[in-house]
Amino acid sequence: MFFTVAVQFAGASSVLTALNFLVTIITMRAPGMSFWRMPLLVWANFSTSLLVVIATPFIAASQFFVLLDRALGFNFFNAAEGGSVLMYQHVFWFYSHPAVYIMMLPGFGIISEILSVKARKPIFGYRMMAFSLLAIVAREQREARHAMTNIHPSAVVHRKSQVGADCEVGPYCVIGEHVVLGEGCRLHSHVVIDGHTKLGQKNEVFPFVSIGLRTQDLKWKGGATITEIGDDNTFREHVTVHSATGGGDITRIGSINHLNLSPDLLASTMQLFLSEQADRQAAA
User: Fold this and answer.
1) Residues of the chain with pLDDT under 70
2) In angstroms, rounded to a whole number, what is the distance separating the alpha carbons of residues 155 and 158?
3) Using one digit for the tens of pLDDT, what is the confidence trace for 122-177?
């Protein structure tokens, strides 16, 4: 609990310091010192301060949620009580990916000034260097989103989860049942997705992925599994899509899916396509 409070104080001090830098650089430059005459070290500090102001409140918010969980019994991150463990990772990455450049950008500015002074020559491409420092600020927010939508190797995603679009699911992940995967996801090798799965469109499924596996829990309870696969997905070799096996199980496969399967698997999959089309025609 005291650690979370300390992180919040550290975050508040960092934001106030960054605001001090920003206000000083914008409003208190020396007479005749335009933006394009500032040293690159000042540009680096300006970019770093922007990143601190944008990113640091996220880590403070995550620790505030943790404090509420610990002190007042809230359940933001407690999966047993309906919270989301992944939400902590999502909020955390909005700060931690830009934090890399918060530490590196001042070093870029220092190296540029030292090289310029020791070489007794002005910096080549001064304006492009300044623009690149600012571009890193915008890029890092995009990269934070990219890191947020990654599921790292060997991770376990609990049941009743929703995976966003453009997500990279690392190898050997286990994804629980009642899971919805968005569009444009990449399921790397040896990912296991349990039953009651809905796979969106334009996903890429790598070898040795198992989709729609009926778990032992569902077998014991006698429950049915529903596997829905959208349109325009790409399946690599040795991908297993568990089909309907009776007992109310349902497998729905969309159209224009790109299959790269062995002949026997291709034949069974085509039978699924034909039976699905027959069901659609009968329903129409």
Assistant:
1) 79-80, 85-86, 140-156, 158-162, 164-165, 195, 212-226, 237, 242-284
2) 10
3) 888 889 989 988 888 877 666 655 555 566 666 667 666 667 667 778 777 777 77
Report the sign of the C-alpha dihedral through residues 7, 8, 9, 12, in that order.
Answer: positive
CA distance 45 to 141: 18
| pTM above threshold 0.70 | no
Q: Is 13 helix (H, G, I), strand (E, B) or coil?
A: helix
- At 41-55, the pLDDT tens digits run 999 999 999 999 988
Range 124-132 contact pairs with CB under 8 angstroms and sequence separation of 24 or more: 126/36, 126/40, 127/36, 129/40, 129/43, 130/36, 130/40, 130/43
CA 171/CA 273 separation, integer angstroms: 28
CA atoms of 24 and 20, how far apart (whole Å): 6
Look up residue 207 and give its DSSP letter. Answer: T
Report how far residue 126's alpha carbon sits from residue 114's, in angstroms, rounded to the nearest whole number.
14
Spatial contact of 18 and 52, defined as CB atoms under 8 Å apart: yes
120: its two tokens: 């007794």
Residue 147 makes CB contacts below 8 A (sequence gap 6+) with: 93, 96, 97
Q: Cβ of 219: how many Cβ atoms within 10 Å?
A: 12
